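Fold it.
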Amino acid sequence: MRIKIGVGEHIFNICNKCIMFAYMLITLYPLLYVAFASVSRPELMVQHRGLLLGPLGFTTGAYAMVFRNPMIPQGYLNTLFYVLAGTLLNLVMTTMAAFILSRRQFMIRDVMMMIIVFTMFFSGGLIPNYIIVRSLNLYNTRWALIFPVAMGTYNMIIMRTFFLSLPDSMEESAKIDGANDFLVLIRIILPLSMPIVAVMILFYGVGHWNAWFNAMIYLRNRDYYPLQLILREILIQSSTENMMTDLAAGVDREPVSEIIKYATIMVATIPILFVYPFLQKYFVKGVMIGAIKG
């Protein structure tokens, strides 16, 4: 049976699609601009004004200079470690906390939730956190970027809400068969929670990938710097003279520096762009279920 759509609804659909297309262009264009600028010739780019709809000339010299910087590969390795180790710890801590606080037989779960949620709105601040990190001998170690952010309260609330939406009958059946809480979590809850687990991986993974502030505060050894902190140095400082010697032949160094900055941004962004499409279907489903059901 076909449902007849009125003229007003047709007009609404067309306007809605136009608005969404405009939003898409507004969101996508800055990334395209950086991508086009990163492979443009510096002398042409510095003369360009207005919209950039394609590369001006074509050169990969900026990318060659970026990867010639020894800090970039080291930063990639460090960031991969922070993402993998940090996300794994985040998943374990968030899953365990959400599971415990979703059990109706846990008598003080409401009190515990109030205490945990309180920390989301009120924290000790930077100086107390810094003192704690130093007192635990985490300062200037890789673990200073992992342990202090072992669990996100907001993410735990989303996962807890998802766990509460699962039928109690499955857990009761498993308990009758002799399963303990650990087996219930591993063999029943988690297999049914893959959408929300994928959401947590995306949230925590992107958070670790983009993190730079804690590294700036807690790290002094440059061998531990994540990629984003190195990117920040390149973007803020103009100390790219050693990187642009070959590329700058006959060209002002300022435009060359700008092209290198664009290339560095792309180097730091592309991995996330490749990962997101594989998690998108779980992302939408998991967020909707975790946020609405309770």
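The longest helix spans residues 253-292.
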